[in-house]
Amino acid sequence: MDGSEAGTRALDWAAGEAGVRRVALRLLHALPEPRAGRGNGPERDEARRLLDRAEQRVRRRVEGVEATGELVEGDAASALVARARDAGMVVVGTRGSGGLAGLMLGSVAFKVAAHSPVTVALASAVREPTTGRPEIVAGLDGTSAGAVLAEAFREASLWQAPLRVVHAFRFFQVPDPVHSAELAALLRRHRRAEERRIEEALAGWRTRFPDVPVTAEVVNDSARKALPRVSAGAQLVVVGPHDHRDPLMPLGSVTYTVIHRCGCPVLIARPA
Question: Where is the UspA domain positioned along the sequence (predicted)?
C-alpha cells in the first residue's frame, strides 16, 4: 500500500476479495532504509497515517474484514514476496507512486508477480459491473492449467459469476487452394482434439463446482491476441505465469501482454 491511485484501486479490490473469502487483510507499506546518520521519523509518521487511512477505507467499504497495517523497512518487492509465504494471495497495483507513465508494469509489481510463491492479483484496473454478472475468463496453456482452473473456478464460485475458459491454439493456415479441402478437414480434426482435451480438463472441476456456469472455447489465434479480446467485458482474467524458464522473461510474453492489455484485474495462478 503506497497511497498511489493504482495502489488504492488494488486496495479496494483486495478488500472485496477478502470479504468474499472471509479472510483477514494485511496491508504492507515499505519505507526505504534510512541513510547512515539520518533517521526517518517524519517519513515513518506519514507512512503510519497512510496505513491508518487504508485500514479505515477497508472497514468502510467491506463490513467484517479485519484489516491490519504493517510498516517495514527495505525493498517493497522483497518484503511482499517474503510475507507471501504465509498468505493465500498477494494483491498489488501495476504501477506505484514512483511509476512512469507508459510503463507496462512497475518494478515492484513485476518482481512480485515473477517471484511470489502464491497467486498474485494485479488489480489496478477495476471494472465496475454494468449489467448482469460479468464473467471471469481463464486462459489455459499446457503448463499451468490445473492451477489456473483451480483459481478460476474458486473465483467464479465466490463471486457467483459465469466462467469462460479459453484455449488459444495457433492452427496452420490454408494457403493452397488445391489442397484446401484436405487441409481444412485436418484443421477441424485438430480443433476437435483440442476441444476434447479442454473438456476432459474441465470435467472434474464442473463436478466440484456445480454452481459455476462454464463455457469453453478453442480459438485459432495467439494467446496474446485472443485473451485481451475475449476478456473485453470480463471482471477478471486468470492466467498462469507461462514460465519458459528464461530468467529474462520470468512471466512469459503472454502473461506480460495480458497484464498490459486487459482492462480488468489479472490473476496469475500459482500451484498450491
Answer: 1-122, 136-270
